[in-house]
Records
---
Amino acid sequence: MPDEVELAIVTMALDALDGAADRLVGILAKYVVVSRGQPGCRNMDLCQSATTPGRFVVIQKWDSPEAQRAHFDSSEMVEMAQACDGLLARMPAIDLLEGLSAHDLA
């Protein structure tokens, strides 16, 4: 029987100020690409809301809660947060999820 994997899944919803969506998506796209190489990162995706204009959601999947917490202290996370200064309509909504049935298909 394979070893049990403890996943940590994080969602970050960020709402751009009017006129700032193009700048924000560029920052988030760079963040996602550079963060995919972080230790323990299983996947990271950038999505755009189909129902709320200017809302972007980053979905992260980590090997463990420890890997996720280490990433939140990383230079990539700090750089992204600083670059978002003045571009957000409100504080990001960040949620940590437990992967009850999440798995990789590959």
Note: The chain has one domain: 8-98.
---
Amino acid sequence: MAKKNPAELYLLSLESQQSRISMRSYLNRAIQIISGEDSVNKFDWSSLTYEMVYNLKDTLSKEKKAPDTINAYLSCFKGAAKEAWRLKYINIETYQHIQDVKRVKGSRNPKGRALSIKELNIILDHCMSQDGLIAMRDAAVIALTYGAGLRRSEAANLPMSAYNRKYKEITVLGKGNKERINALNDRVIDIVDCWLDERGREPGPLFVRIYKGNRMTHDQITGQTVYDIIIKRYKEAGLIRMTPHDLRKTYATNLLENGEDIFTVQELMGHASLDTTKIYDKRGDKKTKKASKALPL
């Protein structure tokens, strides 16, 4: 019987498919740093020591990785180490020493930005002005990703049944299998309806793959597809650099600027921690820029 892999067991314990993809990438890179192997499946977990974890932390620090990034590496590696102990690859003393490796203190300014309403309209108008089903779908993806503050994976995984046209809302299944219902504004509704006029209203994925020649399938798009759509369309529209997650940041920032309290925004974003919601608040960027420009000289 083949030996179980601690890393694979740890990844299986994660509920989010996107988290599994991200953590696998972290683990593969960590294994490369500490052993020279290029995959968790090639590493001899019985050789794991706490000194390796210190080496991992030191190497990432020398590479100037952000504290949050280093801590993400440490967190997933400790998770795999826990499974290695459970499978008796390492003893309890080694496991405890690994768990004792401290997190990195400090923070960096979060990347990304909040888009202006003008920019949002430019990218949506660009998509809506194009011919074909792909452009119509892409407009709906972008409108809904912003209009409901969705993560890429959340947008990709939406079923048709999640969209409630009558009550103008969308039901989202987020991280930790937590469900939330977000209201949608009229323009988002109009754009999604235009897409559904083409897609049809039958059950299945809300957003489907479309091939050249406007050949529509019943296959669900992926989080990577959402990423590719947004990157492609912002470039075509001539906007300055943005990422898909900037739409989510813009959603949070605009809610806060409209006077919504941060606890309401936390609920709408599907955040377990209020501290996470605060990271998405980009209102301070405008205030600090305004203050600096007003400095007399």
Note: The CA atoms of residues 284 and 290 lie 10 Å apart.
